Every structure is written in C-alpha cells, then in structure tokens.
C-alpha cells in the first residue's frame, strides 16, 4: 500500500502531542485556580488520605505532560499520567464506571482517553521525534 502511511515515529509523535497537549490545560487550570486543589484535598481527606497529596495532580497534569510533549523521559511522564488518572477515577468518577450517556458514549470517555492513551505511551515510548528518544 502507501509506504508513506507506515511511519511509527510520526504516529508516536502525534499520540504524544495529543495526549499530553490535551492533558496540560487541565493541569494549568488547577494551577491557576487554587479552589480546584482545595476540592481535591477535601476529596482526599474524605478518603482518609493526607490533603497534601492534592499537589500530586500538578505533577500528573503539568509536569508529566510537559515531559511527554518535549519527549524527555516520555515513558516516565506517561506513567505519571496513568497514575494521575487512576487516582482521579478512584476519587471522583467511580460511580460513572458503568454509566453511558443518552448519546451512547461512556460517561468517562475523556478520563478513559487520558488513561489508555498514556498507557499506550508507556508501552510505545516517545519515538525518535523526541528531545531524548526512549
């Protein structure tokens, strides 16, 4: 078929830019609006966890996406994003795991995209179009 369509490096770059580029604004919103971190801290406290763990969301939604975007330790950054999404689903979305919207879509489509997209990056790595390919 078309040989030009067989480009693993470009595919990995697009996946990296998409997952990290869409995750980063969520982290920046939390960074710029401290009320979001307060809500996360309160949710953690309700589970008997220390509220200081709320700042971990900044690692998972700001630092990690930046790592993935530039291609520096992409697998580590993606793994941090996976952990971030697992915690987010556990803390805020457990009741929606089996819920489907009227349109037929899963209630956790966005969370699922971030979780499984980041997991794919953990397994695939950055590709050669990265600052430091892994």
Automatic annotation (TrEMBL):
Keywords: Cell membrane, Membrane, Transmembrane, Transmembrane helix. The keyword Transmembrane applies. Pfam families: DoxX. The keyword Glycosyltransferase does not apply. It is found in: Cell membrane. It is a multi-pass membrane protein. InterPro entries: DoxX (IPR032808), DoxX-like_oxidoreductase (IPR051907). The chain crosses the membrane at residues 13-32, 52-72, 79-100, 112-131. Belongs to the DoxX family. This is DoxX family protein.
